[in-house]
Amino acid sequence: MANTCAICGKSVQTGMRVSHSHIRTKRTWKPNLQRVKAIVNNSPTHIRVCTRCLRSGKVKRAV
Predict the structure, then answer these.
(1) Global pTM?
(2) CA-based nearest residue to 60, from 38, 36, 34, 44
(3) Which of 17, 16, 13, 15 is CA-nearest to residue 30?
(4) Is the distance from CB of 25 to CB of 16 less than 8 angstroms?
(5) What is the dihedral of CA 38, 42, 44, 46, to 10 degrees?
(6) Is the pLDDT score of 61 beyond 70?
(7) What is the per-residue pLDDT across 9-57, written as a single tens digit (0 to 9) for each?
(8) How far apart are CA 50 and CA 1, in angstroms?
């Protein structure tokens, strides 16, 4: 299973870690994904959603 938001598609970002002596090594930033029970196609299912989508109200939660 990939680290990807089911709503917005946010996934792992890559970049460089830069030390004080400017030695550059690769690093990654992972999205803050939560497994929530949401309404998808009029049925409750578990999906992985980033916290930005949860906070902005893009997800219809199932109770």
Answers:
(1) 0.82
(2) 38
(3) 13
(4) yes
(5) -50
(6) yes
(7) 999 999 999 999 999 999 999 999 999 999 999 999 999 999 999 999 9
(8) 15
Query: What pLDDT, in 10s, does the model give residues 27-39?
Result: 999 999 999 999 9
CA atoms within 13 A on the CB side of 10: 16
Closest by CA to 49, choosing from 60, 14, 21, 41, is 60
Could you give the CA distance from residue 2 to residue 12 in angstroms, rounded to a whole number? 9
Residues in a beta bridge with 46? 37
Place of tokens 């792992």: 12
